[in-house]
């Protein structure tokens, strides 16, 4: 079996989870589930990033110890994973000893090799981003961009990691591994960025300024810079598990691709003599009214509200259907409702209803065998083969939105096939030929539903299970074989009904802000 190790970014615990975090977890989960279905030995890691200035500040604001804040918020992220049906195999917290011990070992090793040195640092520091800024980060008018928050000038001795010494190596590496970063144009941006000389990376923070971090093993007066600490989670979580490292993909947002994941991380690994991941997948942002959803802008949406209202699979479906991986997408409730109503309640819901209803009415609740294959059936079979082949290729290339689009075109075409065959009319006829067509149409719609559900499995696992269950079907162990048109359902006993995606009640009109009309 091929080993496939996939990770998400680990989330900061200075705020509650929002839609951006939920998306990254669902996207990574869909990839993990898809690879498992394809037969890979998957290891899926997620977790929380718990050290650094922001966490220390948030804890102070609330008047609680940082560890308490970490415990509370990390538990929220863990609960989010459970609620979203995320199939992670592990959840790492950077305050765990298993992580801290590996960070100390990597630091000590790099220090012993002379990759880390002490020097005086003078620079402008952004607390919000936890990073020193450079002159080129300033806006044309000399001010600092909004995203850096408050910027202060600092002079202090610190420890530095020799990034610059590896710049040429990194450029060569990226040139030799054209598919290291997905989408590919981002790799070009990184190479563009690497045309400017890199500065060595300041990896320490004096303890008098920052207490909440992992002390440097070679100087207790300093703690480790949070990014240097956090990136190592991908390795520390599997260091004791043979055969997992290196990672296959790190799934991250585009904001943390460059420099942390595309520059610091490959160089850290290379300098420490560790193998590099196969690739980085940088997804885009969920936006509201053109701005990135984030805790600091206050426009973040609580994903759990939508899950409570519409169910986890509808939520997962929306995120994956609507976002072309790598690009940005706007989130509006209207868009969510439009997708929910047209694709799930209408197209998929109708196919389920009709299949169960017709099989109960005309098949004695048992799926019959198909007896004829005329033009309409042949079209359905051919469309299925094409849909499956295209969807698999699209999923291999992370184009899940397009794979779902194809799947729903297939579902729609089955609804059209049912209209064409009109089993309700055939059921009234006593002609043998009509009865054979009736049985064929029942078999065809049930088999098509089984197949569509199988193809939706990575995105909507609970829905697939429910559909299989009402079709009286237990899928076999090899998913690829499940995707072949066949007659696996013949004789299966179907349930009476299943309502998976009820139509939401219409939102009541807003009250209270209308001017009072004239009294009659
Ligand atoms: N702690 C760092 C990551 C360290 S990884 C070694 C971090 N945390 S975060 O909580 O700010 O973000 C976690 C992930 O959520 C990032 O990949 C980020 O891109 C993603 N998202 C945060 N807001 C987002 C959107 N509005 N939309 C999509 N994803 C975004 O960065």
How does this model look, in words?
The protein is of the alpha/beta class and 520 residues long. It has a domain at 332-482: Isoleucyl-tRNA Synthetase, Domain 1. The protein has 18 helices and 17 strands. It has helices at 19-37, 53-62, 66-83, 97-112, 167-176, 184-193, 226-231, 233-236, 257-271, 303-310, 312-322, 333-363, 375-396, 400-421, 423-426, 432-455, 461-470, 479-482, and strands at 3-8, 11-12, 41-49, 90-93, 116-126, 131-133, 151-161, 181-182, 201-202, 204-206, 215-216, 219-224, 249-253, 279-283, 286-288, 291-292, 329-330. The strands form four sheets. Strands 1, 2, 3, 4, 8, 13 and 14 form a seven-stranded parallel β-sheet that branches. A four-stranded antiparallel β-sheet has the order 6-5-7-9, covered by helices on one side. It has a three-stranded antiparallel β-sheet with strand order 10-12-11. Helix 12 packs antiparallel against helix 16 and helix 16 (432-455) packs antiparallel against helix 17. The longest helix is centred in the last third of the chain and has 31 residues, at 333-363. The protein is elongated and about 95 Å long. The termini are far apart. It binds 5'-O-[(L-methionyl)-sulphamoyl]adenosine (MSP).
């Amino acid at each position: 079996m091929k080993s496939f190790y996939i990770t998400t970014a680990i989330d900061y615990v200075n705020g509650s989870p929002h839609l951006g975090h939920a998306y990254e977890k669902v996207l990574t989960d869909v990839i993990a589930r898809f690879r498992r279905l394809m037969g890979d030995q998957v290891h899926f890691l997620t977790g929380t990033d718990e050290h650094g200035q922001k966490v220390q500040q948030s804890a102070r604001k609330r008047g609680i110890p940082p560890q308490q804040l970490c415990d509370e918020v990390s538990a929220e992220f863990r609960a989010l994973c459970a609620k979203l049906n995320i199939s992670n195999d592990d959840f790492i917290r950077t305050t765990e000893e298993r992580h801290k011990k590996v960070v100390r070992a990597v630091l000590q090793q790099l220090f012993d090799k002379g990759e880390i040195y002490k020097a005086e640092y003078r620079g402008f520091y952004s607390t919000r981003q936890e990073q020193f800024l450079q002159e080129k980060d300033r806006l044309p008018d000399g001010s600092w961009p909004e995203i850096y928050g408050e910027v202060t000038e600092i002079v202090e001795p610190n420890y530095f990691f020799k990034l610059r010494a590896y710049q040429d190596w990194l450029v060569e590496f990226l040139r030799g591994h054209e598919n290291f970063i997905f989408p590919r144009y981002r790799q070009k941006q990184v190479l563009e960025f690497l045309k400017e000389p890199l500065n060595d990376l300041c990896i320490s923070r004096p303890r008098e300024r920052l207490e909440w971090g992992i002390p440097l093993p070679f100087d207790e007066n300093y703690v480790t810079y949070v990014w240097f600490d956090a990136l190592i989670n991908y390795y520390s979580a599997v260091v004791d598990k043979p055969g997992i490292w290196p990672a296959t993909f790190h799934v991250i947002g585009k904001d943390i691709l460059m420099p942390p994941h595309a520059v610091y991380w490959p160089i850290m690994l290379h300098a420490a003599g560790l193998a590099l991941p196969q690739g980085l997948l940088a997804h885009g942002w969920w936006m509201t009214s053109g701005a990135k959803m984030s805790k600091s802008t206050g426009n973040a949406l609580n994903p759990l509200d939508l899950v409570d209202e519409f169910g986890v699979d509808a939520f997962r479906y929306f995120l994956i259907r609507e976002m072309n991986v790598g690009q940005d997408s706007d989130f509006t409730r209207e868009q969510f409702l439009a997708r929910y109503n047209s694709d799930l309640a209408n197209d998929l819901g109708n196919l389920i209803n009709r299949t169960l209803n017709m099989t109960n009415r005309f098949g004695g609740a048992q799926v019959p065998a198909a007896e004829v294959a005329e033009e309409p059936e042949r079209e359905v079979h051919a469309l299925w083969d094409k849909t499956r082949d295209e969807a698999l290729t699209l999923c291999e290339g992370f184009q899940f939105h397009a794979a779902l689009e194809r799947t729903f075109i297939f579902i729609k075409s089955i609804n059209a096939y049912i209209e064409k065959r009109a089993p309700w009319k055939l059921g009234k006829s006593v002609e043998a030929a009509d009865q054979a067509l009736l049985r064929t149409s029942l078999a065809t719609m049930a088999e098509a539903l089984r197949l569509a559900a199988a193809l939706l499995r990575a995105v909507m696992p609970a829905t697939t299970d429910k559909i299989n269950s009402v079709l009286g079907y237990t899928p076999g162990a090899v998913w690829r074989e499940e995707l072949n048109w066949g007659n696996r359902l013949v004789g299966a006993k179907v349930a009476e009904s299943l309502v998976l995606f009820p139509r939401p009640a219409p939102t009541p009109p807003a009250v209270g802000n209308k001017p009072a009309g004239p009294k009659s």
